[in-house]
Amino acid sequence: MKDLVWGKILSVGVDEIDEDHRKLLDIFNILNHSVKEGESPEYLVATLEELINCTVWHFSHEERLMLKYQYPEIAEHKTEHQELIQSAKELQQKVLQSDKTVADKHIEFLEHWLTEHILTTDGRLGSFLSEVM
């Protein structure tokens, strides 16, 4: 699995959100490399935990901005955040129950999970915020 590389296509046009996204990609890449390099199961679980915690913080950051600027799609966006966190926590439980093994399929799931949300839902938020901030 290749690293996720930050580029203009992933930018939502709001610096503080883009900075959060870069950090999320960095943690994802650390996890990806750790799987390839055969790091200990405990290290993989800790890295996955860091990715989830950073994502939870990032989502609350976005939701604060949505409230401040009265984003009209806030309910739908927050629902997607809740669903994404739930799916990540379910993945985490699977990893914990399967000898703490993070497989390529888990990395692929997380890659899709991160990039799809940034490219679609966050892209719409970024367009809105760029106009009102």
Explain what this protein looks like in three dimensions.
With 133 residues, the protein is mainly alpha-helical. The protein has a single domain (11-132), classed as Hemerythrin-like (Four Helix Bundle (Hemerythrin (Met), subunit A)). Helix content is 77%, strand content 0%. It contains five helices and no strands. It has helices at residues 15-36, 41-68, 74-97, 104-119, 121-132. The longest helix is centred in the middle third of the chain and has 28 residues, at 41-68. It starts with 14 loop residues before the first helix and ends with a helix. The mean pLDDT is 92.
Element layout with pairings:
Layout: H1 15-36, H2 41-68, H3 74-97, H4 104-119, H5 121-132
Helix pairs in contact: 1-2, 1-4, 2-3
Kindly summarize this structure in a few lines.
Belongs to the hemerythrin family. One of its GO terms (molecular function) is metal ion binding. With 133 residues, the protein is mainly α.
